[in-house]
TrEMBL record:
PANTHER family according to UniProt: TYROSINASE FAMILY MEMBER, TYROSINASE-LIKE PROTEIN TYR-1-RELATED
Bias (Polar residues) ranges: 210-219
Family, as annotated: Belongs to the tyrosinase family.
Domain Tyrosinase copper-binding, chain residue ranges per copy: 285-296
Keywords: Copper, Metal-binding
Chain spans, region Disordered: 194-219
Name of the protein in its database record: Tyrosinase
Record bears the keyword Metal-binding: yes
High-level lineage: Bacteria, Pseudomonadati, Pseudomonadota, Betaproteobacteria, Nitrosomonadales
Pfam family membership, one: Tyrosinase
Top-level taxon in the UniProt lineage: Bacteria
InterPro entries: Di-copper_centre_dom_sf (IPR008922), Tyrosinase/Hemocyanin (IPR050316), Tyrosinase_Cu-bd (IPR002227)
Amino acid sequence: MYYSYCVQGVLASSESHIAPVVFLEPFVRSKKMDHSHKTGAHLHPKTFDEVIALGFPLDKLELLKDIHKKLVKPLLGGAAAFAPKPPGAPVTRQNQADLSPEKREAFRNAVVRLVEEGKYLELVQFHRDMSHDMHGMMGETGLYRFLGWHRRYLVEFERELQRVDAVLRPGATEKLAVPYWRWEDPFPAWLNGFLPANDPDTGTPPPSRKNASPPQKANATDVDIIVNQFSIQNTGLNNENDYTKFTYGLEGWGRRPDGTSLPGHNHGHAWVGGIMNNTMSSPTDPVFWLHHAEVDRLWHIWQQANSSAEPNLSGSDRIMDPWGESYDDLVDTEDLGYVYDSTSL
């Protein structure tokens, strides 16, 4: 039982229970996983507004925030050993559809090795423990940290992949990189081997994906709107230098010109279904990394046209825990050790 589960137990009612993810074999979606976000069997509030709706006393919210700040963060910072930046030129993140069979196999093997080591579950736990700090759950500052935090999170995963890949492929001439999944493309079927076929707990499958749920994901037109000209809350945006509006659009809170909902990051999680639908534990599914690499790529494209835009963060709010690095350290992808093979939409 991890400390974060205890913190969530305080947030939820006394009848609530959060079951840790169980790895029976690599990425099999065990029925022991927490599916209460679908069944409603347990109360799992995700935001402080939801805590209030459940009747949690307002005067205790600051106490909960204080618990998270003083206990969870130090535990993470003290116990974690982060992968160092590898030497050499930046790696190139590729479209998953263009990966050679050898690179796909190398990625799969490296992920399995991380699972066997216990490192993968540790990375999932980072996401669980820090969700209240970078998903908007503690106010707007969490939303402002979302892109920077996940950029650094992907870098951590990528460096761990490279560490184990160097052992698995000692003669490899290229270091492993996290591929990205363009949302208009079908689900990367080469990842299906990680998951059970047609698990009844993971949703109704479309033709391209055995483990997907019905919600739609963004298409090429939607991606163009998100990056270039989406409107949010009836406010026009055309390459506007506004970090907040871009983040809202990327999250999936914007509108198409016809007024319908604009799919974004959140819709991708729902479309895949299963554990990806559980915000805190979603990295359990390896497609999480490909999905968020596309989030990061779109942010990178937007940054090129809006280089002076940045989130409304100041002081300690600019620090990305558990790494203790500033938002300013996460702006340049080359400095972090990677580039993208394409910056086109």
